[in-house]
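User: Can you fold this complex?
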Amino acid sequence: MKQGEIRHQPRHLINGRWVIGATTGVSTNPSDTREVVAEFARADRNQTEQAIAAAADALPQWSLSTPQRRADALDQVGSELLARKEELGALLAREEGKTLPEAIAEVARAGNIFKFFAGEALRIPGETMASVRPGVQVDITREPVGVVAIIAPWNFPFAIPAWKIAPALAYGNTVVFKPAELVPACGWALAEILSRCGLPAGTFNLIMGSGREVGQTLVEHPRVNAISFTGSVPTGRRILTATAARQAKVQLEMGGKNPLVVLADADLDQAVDCALQGSYFSTGQRCTASSRLIVDAPVHDEFVARLTRRLESLKVGHAMTRGTEMGPVVDGAQLEQNQSYMAIAAHEGAQHVWGGELVERETPGHYMNPALWLAEPHHRIAREEIFGPIACVLRADGYEHALSLANDTPFGLCAGICTTSLKYAMHFRRHAQVGMTMVNLPTAGVDFHVPFGGRKDSSHGSREQGRYAAEFYTTVKTGYMLA
Ligand code: NAD
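Assistant: Here's the predicted assembly.
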């Protein structure tokens, strides 16, 4: 560890108490692998079951808490995140490797999410209906689902937990939160704020450790009523299979292979900006990254030339260094996966345009240049999620062809189009087989107060975020009464 840097020692939060782990693990800084960011507690099955029991025991009290109490708690968390966004952003940049401005913006987003759901706690919807029978009144109310397990990935270690934890608590559920193993200090920092916002003991629990042991225990445990998961498709499918028999409520947000269509009538500079931002920022480690650039033949070569020029000057470096535009890859395993896709692309006959090689900086880190390929639709780099700074360009012959290429994928998270034609923009919004569309905007980068999610292999279950989150975090009760 270098002088002046804080090494965190995150513990679990179980029933309102900080608890050491069955074992310990470490997280390191991907911009400087000599630096240990956290030595964190790792739970076993037994500790995970304790956290679940604490959440189950806290449920009767929290599920009957007043909306005012929930709103006050969430608002306090939101305010603290906003007030500490620089400090927490620095922790996030150190542990995950996104650039400092990106990290600060993520913490601010998490703060805004808590504030949004503080408001939603005061607006829990219900309906009164006239009955078809005389003298009978019908009320439709929403109640909490129960104990919710929240299983998060590493790429948005503040924002993704926030958009799950905040609605879970707003609607009266209790929570067991498991962050990804690469980012325990971020998960702990969020939990530490939650531990001081006035929640009754056991309402919110933090448990760290492996997916195989901690995650699996959460998924299989009969006292866990609902699981909100974000991560890879294979893990999501495993969770769905494991929970089917016991009928737990499950929400899965998984991978993407998001297309950005560039039509011949597009503002080309704007389209290049969208591609650069969407494909490479956050080191391409976003489920909404534009990894397939589908470009109309008349502007294909010019688009590729302009994007390549931008890539040549993109500053790859330490996440904390001012001016860095793309930080390192999150860890050695992901870097290796990215490199293997570079080899696969070459082997399958894709045409290499620029980048992809490992690069050295002053500090030892997982650095690589952003990569651009010209591919065919059947190439694996055009079909599989890589989750790194590697994009490919597919040549399209007009709008209809571009649309069919855009939809030719098992994923369905987000799709974008750059065009000056209202006709094509409107048609694309209607016919792209995804959960989110963008016109003249990057595919990555969404608001915090509207629904987020996809179709096909990308998502399962009801939408996250905005008031649509109520679908997952509540269950509907229909009450009849003779008036
Ligand atoms: P991952 O699937 O490896 O892990 C996600 C979480 O699941 C981690 O906390 C992990 O410990 C846990 N886990 C692993 N095995 C488990 C098991 N058997 N049972 C229960 N939990 C288990 O994903 P990752 O590498 O952390 O994240 C990258 C992936 O996340 C990418 O595929 C990306 O597209 C996806 N992602 C999707 C969205 C979205 O909203 N669609 C957002 C961000 C990331």
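The two ends are 70 Å apart (CA to CA). The chain has a mean pLDDT of 97.
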